[in-house]
Amino acid sequence: MRKQLPPDALARDDRFHRVTTAERLADQRPQLGEERRIHLDAEDVADRARRQMHGIFVGEIQALEGAGRTCWDFTDANTVEATDDAVPFALKLDMARQAWDEARHVEISVKLSDWMGTPIGAYAENTVLFEAACSHDPVLRLAGVNRALEGLAIDVFTTMKEFGNLAGDPFLEFCEDWMLADEVTHVKMGSDWLRRLTEGDGERRKRALEFQGIVDKLFSFGGTRSDSEESPIGLARRFRELAGFSGDEIESIAEVSLQALNERKTEARDLQRDAAARFAETAG
Predict the structure, then answer these.
(1) CATH of range 33-283; options 3.40.366.10, 1.20.1260.10, 2.60.40.1120, 2.50.20.10
(2) CB-side neighbour CA atoms (13 Å) of 159
């Protein structure tokens, strides 16, 4: 079986529609709304909830693929075939356990999407999660996937669980709560292994945390995730603490996210001002 599988080699059928990360970040449409958190009184609340649920679904597929690839791509450090990028067998077991969890999450997400009236492929898929799982350094994978992206999953599931409660949907609330418990475990595994694998190697740990910061900033683009109600995803501080994040790390994520939100609001005001000026010029 091939090792180090690139994102464009992922198997998908014709129900899926893929966009690149560059295309997603270049799309300004999600950046212009004044209110982005899902609220029951929002005019497009149903579409927002379905879109977020579909995003969770494709994210779980890629999380499954990423954890499975980590099991396979790196050799066991305790064998004669061990290579420079070998990992402890116990880490491979943790990744196998995560793959099992993610497979269950995919099934749950499909059923929830059906429950919410969303067919597979209703919204586009981008492969940024799997891209973070393509590093040839297992420590970078732990930082990018288990700590940054699975950390985002903690925030997403907490937000969706709260929405399910407000909407009076016990199925959505229960399923999100169930998956949230797994994600806290996945992040905690990443936190523990990152520290163990970089013990005594400060430079390697620094590189890993820098990569994690890049991924966190990428997913804070436009204020996607912050403490503000203007972001669609809230920052689940307590669950992040349980998953091994320090208070300083959480504050750093919050600061980057708030900065991204303020930048989005400034860009939105500039776009609205320019549009008004063009309209006035045309009308005049």
Answers:
(1) 1.20.1260.10
(2) 28
3-state helix, strand, coil in the chain (%, to 5): 70, 5, 30
Among 167, 64, 46, 179, residue whose Cα is nearest residue 111: 179
**pTM reported for the whole predicted model:** 0.82
Amino acid at 161: K
Return d(Cα 245, Cα 75) in angstroms, integer: 28
CA angle 147, 247, 60 (to 5 degrees): 25
Sign of the alpha-carbon torsion through 91, 97, 101, 104: positive
Per-residue pLDDT of the chain (284 residues; tens, 9 = 90+): 788 888 888 899 999 988 876 676 666 555 444 445 677 777 778 888 898 899 999 999 999 999 999 999 998 888 867 677 889 999 999 999 999 999 999 999 999 999 999 999 999 898 888 888 888 999 999 998 999 888 888 988 998 999 999 899 999 999 999 999 999 999 999 999 999 999 999 999 999 988 888 887 776 656 667 777 767 777 888 888 888 888 888 888 888 777 777 776 676 566 556 655 664 565 55
CA distance 89 to 93: 6
Distance between CA atoms of residues 164 and 175, nearest Å: 9
Say how many residues make up the chain: 284
**What are the structure tokens assigned to 237, written together?**
């501080």
Cα 24 to Cα 124: distance, rounded to the nearest angstrom? 10
DSSP 200: T
Neighbours of 164 (CB within 10 A): 20
The residue ranges of every structural domain in the chain are 33-283
Q: Specify which residues 18 forms β-bridges with.
A: 125
CA distance 9 to 180: 29
